Amino acid sequence: MKKVFLVILFVMLSACSRAPLKNREDLMRPASDAPALIDNLSKESFFIALRNHIDVMKKSNQVKDPMVFGKKQIPKADYIVSLEKIFEHESDWLDYITLNFEAYEVYGRDDWADVMVTGYYEPKVPGSKTKTKDFFQPAYATPSDMLVVDLKKFASKFPKGEKLGTLTARLENKRVVPYYDRKDIDENNKLANQNLELAWLDPIDAFFIQIQGTGVVEFEDGEKLRIGYDGQNGHAYFPIGKFLTDHIPMEEMSMQRIRSHLKTLPFKEQQTILNKNPSYVFFKKLDGKALTYAGMEVEDGRTIATDLQLFPKGALAFLDIEEPVFDSEAAIVATTWERKPRLVFDQDTGGAIKGSGRVDLFYGEGDPAAQKAGVMKQKGKLFYLVPR
């Protein structure tokens, strides 16, 4: 799940005060003060996640070989063997990991290991198999006319040393042009009559499912459809919360507050605000749980998304965070925060997760997960665990 596309990133997070990284080798270093490994989730959840993680890691092309931790590189096969040995020490797993893995701290936002942690989740929303007055925004499958142009293939046409990536595009009069943006798709109906509609949703639900990169649609007949990320239109993600500060104080900005405000607006005004984010996500039907970028199924409370260009997918890490506590199921503001450190797996990424000081934590499916993810915007500490 590309994650993608993250709830709290509607908010303009403060810029990193440290100098930007110039060399990827400086991204991590052995921790100057190694953390005591504590896990506030269940041991059972860790070992279930570990088994699934290893099984997919062995065949995933998205887990690069070798795995890079700052100046240290480890063959993917060796890292897998180190993870498998944890099963031999289930009774004292945290002690075993402490003795056999070295903690590497990341080049954080304000200091080493400091990260800003947000949350994402899998929405569960009502929908329809046909267009209705309540459900009139499609969740689209990936269009067949969307192209991905690998600029590295044209390296000779660019100045030497220039970093080249990919472009998402389409053909128009035999010329390559940017793919349609949100306004083109939702307002100008550029994808109509192509049989791409997987389900019909409320427009706000459709938007937030795109932000999360996955969702479960519940139809009136009781049937459920799980959809997951399959592609993106190539336009940069832009946080619509930036345009709502006249209505929502920045310190109170959350997914819940944004949704509530949008619901008060006429549809045309809603769409104008949604169009401020030109990024658009396309979906495919899923048979099981939502999939991460690296191919593993998401694990509640243990899957993290980080910058794909900086961090090694497939790595085990320790995340020390505080989580929100609410006084009711309907509350949109946390009454307090409590420390909830845990071991996590770097499996996912997202278009808005950029830099060495950003982490997104997956909270699960439905309203309870949405409640936590919607307000999650807390400082934490991140350490990668590297076999000694």
TrEMBL record:
<keyword id="KW-0961">Cell wall biogenesis/degradation</keyword>
<dbReference type="Pfam" id="PF03562">
    <property type="entry name" value="MltA"/>
</dbReference>
<dbReference type="InterPro" id="IPR026044">
    <property type="entry name" value="MltA"/>
</dbReference>
<dbReference type="InterPro" id="IPR036908">
    <property type="entry name" value="RlpA-like_sf"/>
</dbReference>
<keyword id="KW-0732">Signal</keyword>
<keyword id="KW-0456">Lyase</keyword>
<feature type="domain" description="Lytic transglycosylase MltA">
    <location>
        <begin position="124"/>
        <end position="284"/>
    </location>
</feature>
<protein>
    <recommendedName>
        <fullName>peptidoglycan lytic exotransglycosylase</fullName>
        <ecNumber>4.2.2.n1</ecNumber>
    </recommendedName>
</protein>
<feature type="signal peptide">
    <location>
        <begin position="1"/>
        <end position="19"/>
    </location>
</feature>
<dbReference type="InterPro" id="IPR005300">
    <property type="entry name" value="MltA_B"/>
</dbReference>
<dbReference type="InterPro" id="IPR010611">
    <property type="entry name" value="3D_dom"/>
</dbReference>
<dbReference type="Pfam" id="PF06725">
    <property type="entry name" value="3D"/>
</dbReference>
